[in-house]
Each structure stands twice: as structure tokens, then as C-alpha cells.
Design a protein that fits this description.
The structure is a homodimer. Chain A is of the alpha/beta class. The first copy, chain A, contains 13 helices and 12 strands. In chain A, helix 5 links the parallel strand 1 and strand 2. The relative contact order of chain A is 0.11. The first copy, chain A, binds a DNA duplex through helix 2 and helix 4.
DNA sequence: AAATTATGCTAAATCATTTTAGTTACCTAT
DNA sequence: ATAGGTAACTAAAATGATTTAGCATAATTT
């Protein structure tokens, strides 16, 4: 038995394809289809289990009901947690998710967006690498809904959802001062993304406010895990006065912990540690690691919400959501 | 400017739509299109940047070039790592990935497969929850390529890629005996999935071979992280003779480490630990945790390879791939 | 009673492609 | 001179929906 088409439904109801299509698209009222006929069509669809052919539909309407989720790295715990929640909610509302990882590689991401645009996805959620301004603007010009997250482009009129990185970092560093640590280094990446710069600014401001000098180690973002460990080890060996480190992102904290292990430095006795972006890991680690936690659930729900709103009302003005972080003090920053 | 169609290309080349279509689908040779005309068409396509409309194409052929990736939980490190590699390779070969998480919930997964089938995806990679035999059989009957992984259904003629869970567990437990531990418990889930049963069998066999009695704690797989910690704590308190634990899967090991922390039991002095499914975490943890590592890259590459082969040659007989695991001895199982 | 309006529906064009079943023109062999 | 073959191409049907423009008929107004 071949798959049912709208034609079959029309025949079974002694009516036209047009009428069935109107009912199917909720335009029965507007098109003055009688209640009786509408009910009959609906019942036939129910009974036969008829499903619209999405190719034919897409061909006419250009709509796919698919959303593109483009994150830095789907295997990073933060992004996979966000993906998880977005996926869940998109499905509930009738959308599917196609995803991919950018590796923060600009040309790879350009390529991916081109591919996705060919496929006529209905909307995008993106953590853009630098240099992606033109592609984002292109999507906006084409009236394709886009929401950025994690970082954004200050020059572009886009919707975005980010966290308050400046105050997240500020609170973390002030917490270290309050706990009695006075010589605090920042370990961050060399990438110029907004979220990293804000964390750096928050750190610097707070250190200076406390009458100290900032000490910053910038690690190229394309280095391997092993290279990170080595770089951090070397830095720690050089500056024996440090009594605390603030890691600007989770994977640098992992490298840092390995470096401290290798140097047999005890946390928090030899050196205190705070990390940006909380993970299950930090709770379980011994000693547990103080971390700035991002509101993953809130971020994800806002993202999918704003995107779907934008898809329904394209002329809606851009929304800029900045969510607060939450400092979770643990043993790594408490003097015994 | 409206988007170019095959008609525009045909006009520009003074030829027919049919001819362009043949060239586009690599059937120029077979259809005896002259070399000159073929070149001309190809050049025009190149120059104009023409792209096929995938809806129209899908409408005729029923092909989407989209693969469904249905895993237990995309935010679990093992699955997101697999997703990462599959995604990468699928894109290289012209396929996109739509994904979703099952939560090991049978009815949710049935729902998802229904949704995906409506969308005419070209193939599936699935970690099936129990009770999904009928849906998998349905896909096979419909000649839709499917590859299972992580677990499989012994009764079904399906392609699958799994690891040698039995020997993985056996080696881990024997390693503990060899390291001088003699009273080894298994902490596993109550779920009856093949991979878990095989790990259990490997454990039991090895313990009995070494002249000891198996001690098994089964934890319902729908318990929360907190419940897991409590259950494991209670178990550890009751049996003071234990000198080692083998965790059958990574999230149980996380719970176990937290429980050991709470009870202030030292690893490996008070108790040794080995976990199934290695993670970055286990390398960084202090002490580092001995683990059975799954060949994530190999699994992923095999999966996408087998699926794409199956898509090209649907009548290919089912392939069953069983990959070896690798025991990584670390400090958690070495007596000082 | 004629003109107007409202109601309830539908024919046919359209979207961009693939594919079947040809056609035309030329060449070769008898 | 003619049948048969082949090289090179193409007209048109089919895929399954949406949507525009319009057609009867009945009800209402003038």
C-alpha cells in the first residue's frame, strides 16, 4: 500500500484537495469551510493515519521545521548540556535539531552555515567563532532567525543569550581575596571572544581594586591538552609567590589540576583554585573545586524560546539576555 | 534575484532540463551526453553557483541525506564523544546528523523513531532501550539502514558495533586480583541491557575462577545521582571486608567516588577502584582512577562506515563488530 | 423582482526535480 | 534505396503539497 496523499483524503471525503489543505493548515474558519465537512476531514485523517509529505510541503513553503545548533564542541560538557535541553524542548514544540561543532574554526563554520542554508533550516542557535560577522549579518538580511549564545558581536543587532562574565569573574576573584589569598593569577586563552575578555576585565578590575597587580597567563586556544599542562606547569614554577589561580574556562582548569598534581602542589594549602563554568567533575574532585556556575537550564530555555518567538514574529526587535552566574564555594578556596 | 533552478541552467546551455539532470546525477556517460555539452553544463553550474533544491529532489527520490543519531544521553561524555566523531565524518561525506536522547525510555524512543520516519531520514544509528525490537524490525523491513551500538538485540539480524564487555570486565577484575585485592564488589545497574549483563558475567566468572564469592550491588537505572550516592554509601558501610570495587559504568563510578569521599575512605589504601568506560576525569582525579577504556574513535568510525555502506548496498548482510577494550591501570588500583 | 452579498467550495497553476519513453539525425550494411 | 542501428538528446508525466482566483447557490437588501 502506497503512502496516503492529500488526494486520497479528499476522495474519501468527496471534497477537493484545496479544502483538505485549508483544514490541514488551520484555515478552515477563514476559508469558511463548514463545521461538518471540517470534522469529517479531520476524522478521516485521524482514521487513516495520514501524514503530510514534508518534501512537498517544504517545496511550497520553504519550511523544514528544523533548527541548526552550531556549538563550539558538542563533546564539551557545557555545550552538550545546553544541546540536551534545547533538543528536548524543540521536539516538544515540533522542531528537530541538526547540530555541528565549529572547533572555533572560522572557515569551517562558514562552510557549515553555507551547507545548512542550502537545506533551508528554519532557524539557528550559534556560538560564533570570531570573524563570523558577515555570515550572521547574511542570515539576518535573509530574515532567517538567529540567536547567538556564550559570546556575541557587539557591533551586530542580534538576539543573544549570554552570562554576566564580568561580574562572574569579579565575584570569583573577590571571593579569593576575602578567603585570605592575595596573589592571584588568571589563566585564560588568547582568544579575543567577548566572554573571555569580560572575564579578564572582571579579574583585572577586582585585583586592582584590592591594591594588587594582575598576573595573566594567556594560552593559545589551539593548543593540545598536553601543551596546556606544560605551559601552566612552567608558569607555576616560575612564580613561586602565587597563592591562588583563577581559571577562565573549564578545560584550562583541567589542565591546571593536572599540572598541580604533577608538581605535587596541594590545593588549597599550596595554592587555591577557582574555575569558571561549573561541572560535575568539580564537585566530585578531591578537594572539591570552587567554581562559577552558569545557569545552563536558563540559558537553554531562553535560547529556544527566543528563537521560536522570532520564527513566529520575524519583525520582533532583537533581545539581549544577560544571565547572572552563581559562585559555588568549595574546598579548593577555603584555608584550613 | 530568485534562486536559480535547473530550468535556468538548461536555458543558459540551450539544452533541456532532462539533460542537465542527467549530468547532475552523474549519468552523463550512461545517457550518452556528449563531453562538450557535459562540460558546458558543469561550467555553467559552477559559474552561477546553482544548488539543487533539496525538497524537490527529496520529493522525487525520497532521499534526505540526513542520518538520525539516537543515543541514550547526548550530555554523557561517552555518547557526546561518539556523536562528535560521527558528526565530523558524516559531514565530510555529505550527510547531516539529526540527533536526540532516549533517556533509555522505551516509549519516548518509539515516539522519536516515528517522528524521524515521517521525515524520511536515510539511516539510523541507535543505542536502543529495551523493548525496541519491533521498531528496529520495522525499519529493517522498510529497508531503512540501521546500525545499533553500545548494546544490541541477540534475537535480531541487525548490524551493530559493540565492545567486548565480557573480557573488558574480566581483565579489570583480574587486574585487581593480580594487584593483591581479594574481596571485590561489582556496582552495576538493574537494567537488563546486553552490555551490562556481559560486564556482570565477566565479573562473576573471574571472581569465581579466583575462588571467591561474587558480591553485587544493583542500582535501579532511574535513580538520581543523590540516590546513587546514598545507596552506595549504605552498601559500603555494611560490608567492611571489601577491599575493591568495580563500577560497571561511568556515572556509577562518579557516585561511588562521592560516596567514598563522604565516608572518608582513602583510595586505594582503604579500597581500590576500577571503572568501566574511561573519561578525562579519571586521569585527572587524585588519585587517578584505573579504567576500562572503550575505543571511542574506532566505534564511531565503524558505525558511520557500516551505515554508509548499508545505504549504498542495502542487501549487504548484517555486520557484527565487537571491538576490544583497553585496561588503563592507574593509581586507584595499585597498593602503595 | 432585480441586484447585491454571503456562504461554501474547487479548478488549476505552481514549486523543482527525476525518469520513462520517446524522437531525430546520421551512419552502415545489404 | 532501404532497413536497422546508434548517438545525442528531449517532451512530458509524476511527485504532493499550497494558494490564487473564481464559481455556484442561497440569503438579503432595495
Amino acid at each position: 500500500m502506497a503512502r496516503l496523499s492529500i488526494k486520497d483524503i479528499a476522495q474519501r471525503c468527496n471534497t477537493s484537495i484545496t479544502t483538505v489543505s485549508f483544514v490541514l493548515n488551520g484555515r478552515a474558519e477563514e476559508k469558511r469551510i463548514s463545521r461538518d465537512l471540517k470534522e469529517k476531514i479531520l476524522k478521516t485523517i485521524e482514521d487513516t493515519g495520514y501524514k503530510q509529505n514534508l518534501f512537498a510541503r517544504g517545496m511550497r513553503t520553504g519550511k523544514t521545521n528544523i533548527i541548526g545548533l552550531i556549538v563550539e564542541d558538542i563533546s564539551n560538557a557545557f555545550f552538550s548540556a545546553v544541546a540536551r535541553i534545547i533538543e528536548e524542548n524543540a521536539y516538544k514544540r515540533g522542531y528537530k535539531i541538526i547540530y555541528c561543532s565549529t572547533d572555533d574554526n572560522t572557515s569551517k563554520t562558514k562552510e557549515l552555515i553555507k551547507l545548512f542554508v542550502e537545506r533551508n533550516l528554519d532557524g539557528y542557535i550559534i556560538t560564533p567563532p570570531k570573524g563570523l560577522e558577515d555570515e550572521i549579518q547574511f542570515l539576518i538580511n535573509k530574515k532567517i532567525p538567529v540567536v547567538l549564545f556564550d559570546r556575541y558581536f557587539p557591533g551586530l543587532e542580534t538576539d543573544y543569550v549570554i552570562v554576566d562574565n564580568f561580574n562572574g569573574a569579579k565575584n570569583a576573584v573577590q571571593h579569593l581575596f576575602d578567603a585570605g589569598f592575595g596573589n592571584i593569577a588568571l589563566v585564560t586563552t588568547s582568544s579575543a571572544q567577548t566572554q573571555m575578555l569580560e572575564r579578564l576585565n572582571g579579574y583585572e578590575k577586582t585585583v586592582i581594586e584590592n591594591g594588587k597587580k594582575p598576573k595573566i597567563l594567556k594560552i593559545p586556544f589551539d593548543h593540545s591538552a598536553e601543551q596546556n599542562i606544560k605551559t601552566i606547569s612552567a608558569y607555576l614554577k616560575k612564580d613561586k609567590d602565587l597563592d591562588a589561580i583563577f581559571f577562565a574556562t573549564n578545560y584550562l582548569a583541567f589542565g591546571g589540576l593536572e599540572a598541580l598534581n604533577a608538581l605535587e602542589m596541594k590545593i588549597p594549602d599550596d595554592i587555591a583554585v577557582v574555575a569558571f563554568d561549573d561541572q560535575e567533575f568539580f564537585r566530585i574532585y578531591n578537594p572539591s573545586i570552587t567554581a562559577v556556575s552558569q545557569p545552563v537550564k536558563d540559558i537553554s530555555l531562553q535560547l529556544i524560546d527566543i528563537l521560536l518567538q522570532k520564527m513566529e514574529t520575524p519583525e520582533k526587535p532583537a533581545e539581549r539576555i544577560i544571565l547572572s552566574t552563581n559562585l559555588i564555594p568549595r574546598n579548593s578556596s577555603i584555608k584550613k
